[in-house]
Amino acid sequence: MKQEILFQSSLPEIRIFRYLLILLTELFGCLKKLTQMIWMSRRLNIQVCIEGIETMEELERIAELKPDFIQGYLFSRPVSSAEFTDSFIKRLEGEHGNA
Question: How far is CA 6 from the centre of its chain?
Fold first, then answer.
């Protein structure tokens, strides 16, 4: 019964946190496990978000794996949805000369 529920429910995405990222890349020096996790997720139609990217070097390494989403302090500190929306709208207005 529980197994049926697991396979009937769909996961929107898998989030790979910074701790696991560091464990796999820096301590073990291997992206193979991470690559396999992303491949398996794709086969199951589950999107992958890799979190905790803080440097350009990390971004370059992770981008090669082609996850669906990448996030971390390299892009922005954590913000509320209101702050994000305000910032996003201001950026769009600036790009389109409506500021």
Answer: 23
- The whole-angstrom separation of Cα 57 and Cα 2 is 42
CA–CA gap between residue 63 and residue 51 (Å, rounded): 12
Write down the pTM of the prediction. 0.70
End-to-end CA distance of the chain: 57
pLDDT tens-place values along the chain, 99 residues long: 444 544 555 668 899 999 888 888 777 777 888 889 899 999 988 999 999 999 999 999 899 999 999 999 998 888 888 898 888 788 888 877 654
